[in-house]
């Protein structure tokens, strides 16, 4: 079940509570991805984000990274399903900063405004997917939930179709999307034609058998 926004009130922890939470968290970690508490009260740790992207992304080569203008080194393609990325972040990093860091790690040239971060959690034998606001702090949510990803996991998605910021796409990106759609449409059309050709052939064979004199 998808929930549009996270609606639960947040209970902010004291420094002592954070220290205790981190100690408890680290004692339960099984993948060595522990959290570290700094003297200034800021803590660092790891989160895993599953990429659930339906639309193609535009990836730039390392040579063209940092350029604002579109280049020939940019390619649009679909990210494989189930791709999971691990990020090392701090308790001060917001959802928007996490999205930007993910895109930078993948060398994605798309505008971060096209994407949203969700949290997926289990409550009363049901799975809920909640869209997080840009001001949320993912590491805090990870700390409170504990290290078990089956209890809480993060998912990167595009904004829903009705809320896509089409003005955030460049002209080359939009043209790439059209080319991909044209290719997919042609592939589906060929499959459909082949299916009906086979069906027609079998019908003609059946009719030939019925009308065969004998």
From TrEMBL:
Key words, A-Z: Cytoplasm, Cytoskeleton, Metal-binding, Microtubule, Phosphoprotein, Zinc, Zinc-finger
SMART domains hit by this protein: RA
Domain SARAH: 163-210
GO molecular function: zinc ion binding
Localisation per UniProt entry: Cytoplasm, Cytoskeleton
This protein's GO CC annotations: cytoplasm; microtubule
Principal subcellular localization: cytoplasm
Domain Ras-associating: start-end pairs: 71-161
Any one biological process term the GO annotation gives: signal transduction
The protein's name: RASF3 protein
Phylogenetic classification of the source organism: Eukaryota, Metazoa, Chordata, Craniata, Vertebrata
